[in-house]
Each structure stands twice: as structure tokens, then as C-alpha cells.
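Researcher: Go.
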Amino acid sequence: MTIRMDNVGIVVEDLGVAIEFFRELGLELEGQGMVEGEWAGRVTGLGDQRVEIAMMRTPDGHGRLELSRFLEPAVIADHRNAPVNALGYLRVMFAVDDIDDTLARLREKKAELVSSEVIQYENSYRLCYIRGPEGILIGLAEELG
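Model: Structure:
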């Protein structure tokens, strides 16, 4: 049996801002469009729906992130500011070559560190969590050595 992860989905209010944030992180816009109709609602269990999506791809082509903005039905819950120990989906972690450079670029897009510093784990990694647009929680990891 073969299995691979296709994508992780994040629901946002402002698709344009989210696209620009993830572009600054280094992802590439693979495509953008509308997903709508009864067939889509049968997959999600939401009934008739209209969702604007953007598919972002990591430069190595192995990871994808689906950003979705629901037009119909209306969004009914908001987990963007959930603490790190909340149940359910929490964050997406990205491996980066230079965490300091990445943070500097993402701060220009309003990203903020969750704690006050980047932490070094032994001689293996430098790590941090940031909140991006709309409070989206993102992890960054720089492998050392």
C-alpha cells in the first residue's frame, strides 16, 4: 500500500493576504479557483457550497497547502487564536534554511513570534512558532549542522 499526504487545508477570511504571506515564506501558487456545487458539499458534508481556493506548493514539490475562503455556507467557528495546547488541528511546521531571514521577511507580513525568542534544541534545530495573517499558527524549524 502506498500513501502520501496530498495537502493540508486552512480556512481564511482574506485569501489574497494569506497567499502573499505563504509566498513570502517560500511557497509557490500552484493554482486558484472556485469549488462549488452539490458535489463539493457531498464531500464536506456542508451541502451546497461556494469556496474560493488557492493551492500553494513547497519549492521541492512534495508539500501543498490549500487555502480556502468560504463564501457559502458562512463560517461558523473561529479557531485562529486557539492556544498551542488546543485539541484538533494546530499548526503546520516548515523546515527553512535560515530561520532569522525567514522571520525578518514574515514580520514584514505582520507575523509575530508566539514566544519572545527562537529556541535552540540541543545541536539539532532552531525552532519557533509564529502567528501569521488572521492568527494562523505556523512552526519554523532550521536544522543545524
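Model: The helical segments are 15-25, 38-44, 99-107.
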